[in-house]
Write a structure and sequence with these properties.
heterotrimer; A mainly alpha; B alpha+beta; C alpha+beta; A: mainly alpha; 20 helices; about 60% helix; about 0% strand; B: five-stranded mixed sheet; 11 strands
């Protein structure tokens, strides 16, 4: 634990904290239980009010009822949680609510039910995020299994087209939402304050709000099949979203909550990094993971409002017959061209959507890249080869990703004259992306590669993301995109990119930081089964996608031509195996949390701040704030401590 | 701290890796050129547009080989050269090695040049694909209407003849005008190498010149609701004479609809005389009387596109 | 040792639980998506039937469909000896006020046969957007009869629905395309039959077409007769109301 940072050893909680056992009443009121009760009451109260005040014929469609019901559900959930107590009491000049404060103290800290309530500790929120995002990953994966099951044999044997498209839509959006938060949610919340040497986030209540909005957003989203489903795909293109089944309401409300949750969570992290760095933590001493968080936060905060407004406009179009995106007056009996009526435009939705949804791709990718660069330095025992170029790469991608959304509209007929410009900016983005690669490759080169699981996932990234990036170059070329657009080639491309950066980065971080969060290692044998199983089956499934896409198989269709019988069966079988291998990972997490091999405070011999405190991290993180003396990756410098002699300071490793 | 001079001697691993890299580039380019046409067999290539795309696919794959091989060689060779032998204990720190200005500028320059080459290629081929036909090329106009869940086609130069089947003459430039009556569709013929969205309230355009007689298929590539899966249909590219016969046989001229035998049913025989109703033959009143109408509108041939 | 065995047992159990979870969801969604059994074409002639035209397949079958502005009430069904098969696709809402075809939207026809279809329409008029679908296409003789009168098309403003068979899910089956307009009741007639919401006497469309080899097709209505944005929502977007499947069996 010896580095040049000054980290005081004592971890006593600050004074004035409550200790001792809470009563059952204190445990349950307020908690998620009262939140759920409040949500149910809120739903029924709001729907009753709407029923009583809305004319009968406006209620023939369930849209208005559902919309207000979900709003009531959200408000009831927040009231039931006690989330609104503080602002209300603050306005009224009353003291802080008691239910927020005691659970940060040492006495209650070790008990399981602290995860099931409104809690302000960033580490508890991080673990809540880990659980929630893993559940979302499992549900999204379930959707993938259902999709592949329907495509196992031709002829829509298992689900009719409407159910199939509902599953496709839910799989897409759930996975996007999962990838949105699977690194910045658990690991961002848990490690951002520790890595900069702070005790908590800048805005702990905003942090808690972010998780609880995501939770209720996912719940509302999961109601889609029970309110009728929808057949739009996650792009939710407007004229279709306006006429599809009422599942669209649950989709829009759920996704709005997810967007708000991500935005406030990331802005909070950005504020924390800007204002709460420990003494000596200069910008150039910031670990690359935090630079990734900074880029992601800037992207999310500036692009998410675009789709947020778009979704609200769709909700109004559906429930109250406004015409933001419609050029035909709802309910009119005649078709009139756009000059005469409505005034809305379908392109407006597409641009509103893609202005968010292209930066969104990089919101997914950047934390993954940053995580993998972080892990690479530790396990090749070398400083980052090009630290400043890596920062430039992250910020360059952040900036550049606002300039490229038009490449999703190459075939839409929108602004054909701009296609050359968007082709240029899209191909330009390969340059900052190259900075990430040169950082990782240069760091690996001549290092002393400690082939633990986190580093193994870096190599998986090199393979997967390179293929994803190269296929992206094909799609950035306008004429070739006109051929490939909407085919399985695109589906293969973005699965390679998103899994290759985000999910592989998440796995690397899981194996890397699990000992810090729980004090135990993830099991290594199960980990290698997961690693090889995932990489083999993943490549077999999605390489098949490229082949099918070349031959013109469209995305999101429930049935296919006989040409694709064999490839689809092949892809489905290996997708099922991929699903099984993912369950191995879940088993590993659950098992190792309870029974894993115990880890010391710094088993990887890393030099960043989070490894200089005990595992699991105590409340308040640091008894006194540390002082930072050097950059995060000063491996191999004369200042670095001598390596531990073999056997002198055993590092526990599983199986040994 | 960070001012440690680079103490590293030159090393033979770099030379080995560069040799392997060079060899793999050559091998990879050869493989790409040989294998891509064999793997990437999309539908029969039936227009210059599609064959250009095919060429771009091969060229881009070949240009991507150095990039791919760079990551593979300089990433994965580390596992061979620099792997710490024992997993159970941490290795010593590696050498303190950070990049100087030269390698960074070289990397930026190479990736930028690579992107620029692809961009210029793309611009040239985009211009080729969108080029208007030479004056006097007798361009065929086809209006495409998408509606959930079928496309139908109007030939404005042929008295607004309409059909649910797309038939095109070979080697004649075609100019599609595309719109939708409900949601966003994407009109595509893979064999002709194009795709263009059908957007409600908007007319979009695309040009193509079919170059090979044959039967192909068209379909919708933008998820458009319940039966999007089945939004497809046949395309026939035929000789100019055959097309002329076919299109003049479409006796459907906008509204009001024409006469008996409209849209000659494909696959179903049309009996001579056209009987079938309970009242026997079509009747003495003549074909025009067959339009059922409460208020006869003016007999003006009308296209959906104005 | 115990620990190391335990983790493998736990992993296998969790994988099996995962399989059971996915299987359970498949069963649930499959049950939610189940449609009514198919309507078979019958060789029994309906009360009014066309004469057999020459030069056509000798195998001749008949099928009758109805269109309603809303689901028929039980009283109406008893009175008219009508057994309505619910589409059964909407889990939480029967949509009884939605316009629909009946008695069933999954049609089964024999291959290489002459099919005579009768559509009895109780619904009012909804102007059609795409006039292409207000003409009769793909039928024998290019005509249909409307209350016994042969026509090749209808004024787009008096059409109620269309009955259109189309699409090839794959290239291994013949192209089958039949489209006829379904003429609607005039407004005064529609309002006159207010007791059940239906006019007393439907408008009867009749037409014949020839099936090719075996295949699977869909049929649908192209007239925006539904809810929401310009009438393309609701029943137009939900399986079993204004659309269905056609299975041609060999």
């Amino acid at each position: 634990m010896s580095t040049t940072h000054e980290v005081p050893a004592s971890h006593e909680p600050r004074d004035g904290r409550v200790s001792g056992q809470p009563s059952l009443w204190q445990k349950l009121v307020p908690s998620h239980l009262t939140g759920i009760i409040g949500a149910a009451i809120g739903y029924f109260v709001f729907t009753a009010i709407v029923r009583a005040t809305t004319p009968e014929d406006a209620l023939a469609q369930p849209d208005i009822l559902l919309l207000w019901g979900f709003i009531g559900l959200l408000i009831g959930w927040l009231i039931g949680l006690g989330a609104l107590n503080y602002p209300v009491r603050w306005i009224l000049g009353m003291p802080e609510p008691k239910h927020e404060e005691p659970y940060r103290g040492e006495g209650y800290y070790r008990q399981i039910w602290r995860y099931f309530r409104w809690n302000l500790d960033h580490k508890i929120i991080g673990i809540q995020y880990l659980a929630l995002t893993l559940i979302m990953l499992a549900l999204g994966g379930t959707g993938a299994m259902l999709i592949r099951l329907n495509l196992l044999v031709p002829g829509t044997r298992f689900f009719p087209p409407n159910t199939y498209e509902t599953i496709v839509t839910m799989h897409g959006m759930l996975m996007i939402a999962t990838m949105f938060s699977i690194i910045v949610g658990p690991f961002g919340n848990y490690f951002v304050p520790i890595m900069i040497g702070a005790r908590d986030m800048a805005f702990p209540r905003l942090n808690a709000l972010s998780w609880h909005l995501l939770a209720v957003g996912v719940f509302i989203f999961l109601l889609i099949p029970f309110v009728g489903g929808l057949q739009t795909g996650w792009t939710f293109y407007s004229p279709l979203a306006d006429q599809t089944e009422p599942g669209a309401i649950a989709f829009a409300v759920g996704v709005i909550l997810m967007l708000v949750s991500s935005s406030i969570g990331l802005v909070n992290m950005l504020a924390t990094i800007i204002t709460m760095r420990a003494p000596g933590m200069r910008w150039t001493r910031l670990p690359l993971f935090l630079w990734g968080i900074i880029g992601t936060a800037i992207l999310t905060a500036t692009s998410a409002p675009s789709w947020f407004s778009g979704l609200i406009q769709v909700l109004l179009d559906r429930a109250y017959h406004t015409t933001f995106f419609l050029n035909i007056v709802p309910g009119s009996d005649t078709f009139v061209s756009s000059a005469a009526t409505g005034g809305g435009n379908a392109y407006l939705y597409e641009v509103t959507f893609w202005f968010f949804a292209h930066p969104e791709v990089y919101i997914l990718a950047i934390p993954g890249w940053a995580a993998l660069m972080e892990v690479t330095t530790v396990f090749s025992r070398k400083p980052a080869f090009t630290y400043k170029l890596a920062i430039l790469g992250i910020l360059g991608v952040t900036l550049n990703s606002f300039l490229v959304w038009g490449h999703h509209l190459f075939v839409s007929g929108w602004a054909p004259a701009l296609r050359g410009y968007y082709m240029f900016t899209t191909e330009l983005i390969s340059i900052p992306t190259g900075f990430i690669f040169i950082t990782i490759l240069g760091t690996l080169w001549r290092g002393r590669l400690w082939m633990k699981l986190p580093l193994a996932w870096v190599f998986a990234f090199l393979w997967t993301f390179t293929i994803g990036g190269i296929t992206g170059i094909f799609l950035s070329d306008v004429p070739l995109d006109i051929q490939m657009h909407g085919t399985y080639f695109v589906a293969g491309h973005f699965h390679y990119v998103i899994l290759g950066s985000m999910l592989w980065g998440f796995f690397a971080l899981c194996y890397y930081w699990f000992p810090k969060i729980t004090g135990r290692f993830l099991d290594e044998r199960l980990g290698w089964v997961h690693f090889w199983g995932t990489n083999i089956t993943f490549n077999l499934v999605f390489a098949t996608f490229f082949l099918m896409g070349w031959q013109g198989l469209p995305r999101r269709v429930a049935d296919f031509a006989p040409l694709f019988d064999i490839p689809n069966t092949f892809a489905s079988i290996f997708a099922f195996l991929l699903g099984a291998v993912m369950v191995v990972f879940f088993a590993n997490v659950i098992w190792s949390w309870r029974y894993g091999e115990k880890a010391s405070a710094n088993p990887w011999n890393a030099r960043t701040l989070e490894w200089q405190v005990p595992s699991p991290v105590p409340p308040e993180n640091f008894a006194a704030l540390p002082t930072v003396k050097e950059g995060p990756y000063e491996y191999g410098t004369p200042a670095a401590p001598p390596p531990p002699a073999p056997g002198a300071k055993p590092v526990p490793t599983p199986g040994s | 701290m960070a001012q440690v001079p680079n103490p590293l001697p030159p090393h033979r691993e770099l030379r080995t890796a560069i040799y392997v890299y060079a060899a793999l580039i050559v091998l990879g380019v050869v493989l790409v050129i040989v294998l891509t046409p064999w793997i990437a067999t999309w539908e029969p290539v039936a227009s210059a547009r599609a064959s250009d795309n095919f060429l771009t696919l091969i060229v881009f794959s070949a240009v991507a080989v150095p990039v791919f091989m760079f990551v593979m060689v300089f990433g994965f060779s580390n596992l061979y050269f620099f792997r710490h032998p024992r997993q159970s204990e941490p290795p010593r720190d590696g050498p303190y090695m950070v990049a100087g200005l030269g390698p960074q500028l070289a990397w930026i320059g190479l990736t930028a040049a690579h992107a620029l080459v692809l961009f210029v290629w793309g611009l040239i081929f985009l211009a080729r694909a969108d080029a208007a036909p030479a004056p006097g090329a007798n361009q065929l106009n086809v209006d495409v209407t998408g509606e959930q869940w079928q496309f139908n086609f109007t030939y404005p130069q042929y008295n607004n003849a309409q059909s649910e089947i797309l038939e095109l003459p070979v080697n004649r430039p075609v100019y599609f005008t595309i719109t939708s009556l409900d949601v966003v569709h994407s009109f595509s013929v893979d064999a002709l190498g194009f795709k263009e969205d059908a957007v409600p309230g908007v007319f979009t355009h695309i040009r193509v010149t079919p170059s090979k007689i044959g039967s192909y298929s068209l379909r919708c590539y933008e998820l458009c609701g319940l039966y999007h899966t089945y939004m497809e249909g046949p395309v026939r590219v035929v000789s100019a004479a055959d097309f002329d016969t076919w299109v003049r046989g479409l006796k459907v001229h906008g509204y009001p609809w024409g006469i008996n035998g409209a849209g000659a049913p494909v696959g179903a025989p049309t009996p001579p005389g056209g009987t079938g109703g309970p009242s026997g033959s079509v009747g003495p009143e003549g074909p025009q009387a067959l339009i059922l109408s409460h208020s006869p509108p003016a007999n003006v041939p009308r296209s959906a596109f104005t | 040792m115990n620990n190391s065995l335990g983790k493998w047992v736990f992993t296998v159990v969790l994988v099996l639980l995962g399989v059971a979870w996915v299987g359970g969801i498949v069963v649930l969604l499959h049950a939610m998506g189940t449609t009514s059994p198919a309507a078979q074409a019958s060789s029994r002639r309906p009360a009014i039937s066309p004469t057999q035209p020459p030069n056509l397949p000798t195998k001749h079958v008949y099928m009758t469909l109805q269109t309603f502005p809303s689901t028929p009430t039980d009283a109406w069904a008893v009175e008219h000896h009508y057994s309505f098969v619910s589409p059964g696709v909407a889990p939480l809402n029967g949509h009884e006020d939605w316009v629909r075809y009946g008695p069933n939207t999954n049609l089964v026809l024999p291959a290489h046969a002459l099919v005579t279809m009768t559509i009895e329409n109780y619904d009012g008029q909804t102007p059609i957007l795409n006039e292409f679908y207000s003409k009769v296409q793909g039928t024998v003789g290019g005509i249909e009869t409307v209350d016994g009168k042969p026509v090749t098309g209808a004024d787009p403003s008096i059409v109620s629905h269309t009955f259109t068979i189309h699409s090839i899910p794959n290239a291994n089956q013949p192209w089958l395309y039949v489209s006829v307009p379904v003429v609607g009741e005039p407004d005064d007639v529609e309002e006159a039959g207010a007791d059940n919401g239906f006019p007393p006497k439907p408008i009867v469309m009749q037409f014949s077409f020839v099936t090719g080899g075996p295949g699977k097709y869909i049929w649908q209505c192209f007239d925006p007769c539904g809810w929401g944005f310009n009438g393309f929502g609701g029943p137009m977007q939900t399986r079993g109301f204004m659309s269905g499947t056609v299975t041609v069996q060999g």
